[in-house]
Amino acid sequence: MQNKKNILAIVLLIYFVSGCKKNDPEVHPAGPTVYSFNGIIGGTPVSITSGLNNYYMNTSYFLDGNGVYEYTGEFRDKNCTGNCSNSLKIIFKDYRQSYINAGNIDTVLTPGYYSFAMPSGSPAKYAVTFNPSFNKGVPQLYLWNFGDGTTSNAINPTHYFLHPGIYPVSLFIQSTTSCSSSITNNVVIGQVGNAFQSAFSPSVSGNMLTFLTSTMGIAPISFDWNFGDGSAPVTTTSTSITHSYSPGVYQATLSATDVTGYTAVHNMNISTQGPTWCFANYYSLVNPVTSPYNLAGVIIEWRDAGGTLYTSLNDGQLKKSYFNIISVENYINNANAQATKKIHAKISCTLYNITNTGSVLLENADVVFSVAHL
Asked: In order of start, what are the domains of the chain with their CATH numbers?
């Protein structure tokens, strides 16, 4: 009878210990992978999985000297308590300078692109001024859709985008005679990888139009033209092209593909000489608005096998860098009974040695990590 009691006690102990591990989001010795990092750092593939090789996900939050919360997730060896070699840390800055009511981080951590923090203060938002044009009529109605869920009826609005991204901005104009025209183009804001904008300008000679391209892509670039009049599309590497139209108004489309494989599409309403139909277009001017506190910025820290610290916190961060959150979900409390968010993200950036003796590229990383919050 005593032996049966001892066996029962052991079984209950095993069950209790196992139950505790299941409720601890930081240590996963078995079962499905919860946290992982897979990418290339300094040309070397790096793969980290929580629960393997003593790695776990350390989650925390911290109020800095400027009254801004930092939310942190770190892959590290569970036996290390200091500056751990082969460790990776991801830090989010809150989007508010004040710590009042800062426990809600849902506005900070939502799917989309984020700026990397910089010592001089990374852009916390982007002011974009839009300037329309309208031919053959007097406008009486403007309707802008900025592609981020907001609209405007202003003639030439300045709109603030809160995150980097590629936004489809649309303009609809109607004249006093009820003639209307619309145009939509992507506006590239901030650090979004290899994305770029492409544009072209037409010159008219009768019904003959010559298009001259302008693009920020990396050569060689292939240009695909759809002239909008039902004629066959044309592919060329030349930066200029001529096309003959019948009288009228058409929407021409340029798709420019650079050496990275990214394709930028630009639309423009154009006309031949002497049309009676109206048509609208617009152009945009982007002005990054800096923040001395790096609000809503991201910092990546990597310690290599020798313990040398590399950080993304540097003013030399390239525009083609990106931090893109794919998904965010509430997760179970960490070992300190703090609430956590589980985050899936894609990352590419430059990591700089803190002694300014060099840098390494963090490329094509896919990461699932967690941060703690109030």
From this structure: 2-122+293-373 (no CATH), 123-289 (2.60.40.10)
